[in-house]
Amino acid sequence: MENNIKKYCDIVRNSSNENEKAIKLLYESKLYKKVVGTLRKELELYIRTLYLSQQNRINREELLSDFFQNIQWKNSQNKRLTDREMVDFANGIGFGWEYISYKFACAFVHLSILHDWANKDAINILRYEDKKTIIDYINQYHNANLDTNCILEDILVYSLKIKANMEYYLKELEKQNKFS
User: Fold this and answer.
1) Fewest CB atoms less than 10 Å from the CB: which of 17, 32, 43, 66?
2) What does the DSSP assignment read for 15-82?
3) Contacting residues for 16 by C-beta, under 8 A, at least 6 apart
């Protein structure tokens, strides 16, 4: 089990490092749609790691075993565990930004009106309450001073902060592993 957790954490960190490099290059090139698409991949790493870290030892071992056999994760009903279930789980123990950010990022992955971000700032397409939730979180946890008049580019600056949150849960997994 210990080796599986270490391998999982190494894989997630390597993938996250690659995402970080891609996000920086894409942001510098003002390819914001691609930044958000890559950010969505980073969110998936975060949400899966958060989910895994909150499971009991037996569930964690099963999930990791499936992961390394390239088998789709299963939920408590032994059915395919969906991203939506993990996002809902993360949102239930998180701060509310997880679901909104994931949904927003998916709209950039799949063809939507957000692909027209150059003509209408994508952040202004969000519902006011959703935009405010994201901005409030960024302001509170990242010492920003954003207001509801900010634009997508202002928010994207904080996108790599997800990595710090994920690192916290990776360390939790590693710590739990030492006491199992």
Assistant:
1) 17
2) HHHHHHHHHHHHHHTT-HHHHHHHHHHHHHHHHHHHHHHTS-HHHHHHHHHHHHTT---B-TTSSBPP
3) 42, 45, 163, 166
Domain boundary assignment for the chain: 2-179
Quote the CA–CA distance of 93 and 91 in Å, as a whole number. Answer: 6
Q: In a structure prediction context, what are the per-residue pLDDT tens digits for the chain, which is 180 residues long?
A: 568 999 999 999 999 999 999 999 999 998 888 888 898 899 899 999 999 999 998 999 999 999 999 999 999 899 999 988 998 898 888 666 777 778 777 777 777 777 777 777 878 877 888 888 888 888 888 888 999 899 888 888 887 777 888 898 899 999 887 755
